[in-house]
Design brief:
Blueprint lengths: L1 E16 L6 E3 L26 H9 L4 E4 L23 E2 L6 E2 L5 H11 L2 E6 L6 H12 L5 H8 L10 E4 L15 H18 L4 E5 L5 H11 L5 E8 L6 H9 L2 H11 L23 E9 L19 H16 L4 E7 L8 E4 L2 E4 L3 H10 L3 E8 L2 E3 L2 E2 L1 E7 L5 E8 L5 E9 L9 E9 L14 E9 L5 E5 L3 E8 L2
Parallel strand pairs: 1-19, 2-3, 2-11, 3-6, 6-7, 7-8, 8-9, 9-10, 10-11
Antiparallel strand pairs: 1-14, 4-5, 12-13, 14-17, 15-16, 17-18, 18-23, 19-22, 20-21, 20-23
The structure holds alpha-L-arabinofuranose.
EC number: 3.2.1.55
GO molecular function, one term: alpha-L-arabinofuranosidase activity
Catalytic activity: Hydrolysis of terminal non-reducing alpha-L-arabinofuranoside residues in alpha-L-arabinosides
Length: about 500
Amino acid sequence: NLRQASVTVDAGQQAGLISPLQYGQFIEHLGRAVTGGIYDEHSALSDQEGFRTDVIEKVKELRTPLLRYPGGTFTKIYHWEDGVGPKSDRKKRKNLIWGGIEDNHFGTAEFISYCRKIGAEPFLVVNMATGTPEEAANWVEYCNGTGDTYYANLRRSHGFKEPFNVKYWGIGNEEYAETDAGRDQEVQQYIKDTWLFVKLMKLQDPGLKLVLVGNQDDTEWSRQVLEKLNPVCDFLAIHLYSIPADTSYNTLIKSIDQFEKPLLDMEALLSKFPAKVTNFNSWYRFPARTAPIQLAVDEWGIWDIHSNRGKGLFQMEYQYNWSHALGVATFLNLFQRHSSSVGMATWAQTVNVLAPIMADSTGSYRQTIFAPLKAFRDFSGKYTLKATTISPDMATGIKALDVSSSITDQGKQIVFTIVNRDAAHAINTAIKVDHLPNAFKKGTIRQITWSAGNLNAVNTYGHENAVSMKESRRKISPDHMNALLAPASFTVLILEQP
Ligand code: AHR
């Protein structure tokens, strides 16, 4: 049952810097994602701030560099002033998007504190559906203001002398989509509204990095947004959700492989805009963009509605099995291969909702998808290497192997992240490195493989052993480097200098 494949890279040809922000996470006031997930004031498992300590330990293991908040679609009804100041004074509101009551006890300051605890940069998204440009600019002042002005002073009066320095701001979320509280906007309307938001927010803080709403399914929407707003667009947002139509494994993998196309389409579009803007109207008292526009895949993940274990359809508490973990590794390879354009990506979401971590009143556990999310953060290099893969098919139109490769900062490690998606065959893979520096020739190959008993294997409370990890080392023999890749496995292969 052994099949043959090969992967070739050129150690001398770095293809692009891998932005650390590719490994971000997202949290939203949706079901038990925030309250009942990362935050529970009434749990014995929480610290004094109300953060679940068992959950925070697991979130920290993920080493996320970026955390997006408060939505998602929730932003369309969120008014940030409801979530600041003494908790007893905060307004309770119906969560008109996702249902339930939002007591707003987790708001801006709690979010910032959470980011600091897990070592992540905060990324806030403003309400442009039922909020105003002025409200958004006030939020910028509350977070970043340093002068003697109302909202900066309001923050100080809440106990935060130092500014929060929030650099990344999203202007709206999926504004092209009709939702309960949002509207199905025409792109011209989005452009006009966004320009007002940009001006007021940048006048508060010219250093903000802005994420504008793109549309991966509608290149024309994205083109028009960039045509008009490219001088102030640091990142163009797209959302990549695999929503497999049935429970078949091949359908799942195919649904993720097809995302190569929107990334290529978006890259072709971005290439039409200059790396920096030199002809910006100097009348504006804030600078234009000085670096190339990048993509923010600020929501990505797998909606396998067949695996919903939440109390309702909109709780989105999916139980991820090993097949989903192989899908996540495939997604991460895709982003790494496209690292020249993917400047940030935030997995939707973090706890309970579409999540790598589940929590209830008794405890918490890591789902199967936790393994690839963590592995990429732990082992990926700094620059991508272009990998050429010759792989057998596992079904019509689906390659068994999915690969990306990278090299570390000082060039001392060459890393391959390889998913053998074929559940029936092990694959003997020849690893070929052109221009391998001599220093590697006395080095070692470290192979770490994650696998599970079967594609349906899942973790649950008290049983977190569906995924096993095996590690081995051997000497590099430059003319004959092979890796045996187990069926339905995910492998990190590291060539290391002595
Ligand atoms: O992540 C759940 C929802 O999916 C988000 O609120 C929305 O932006 C997306 O459609």
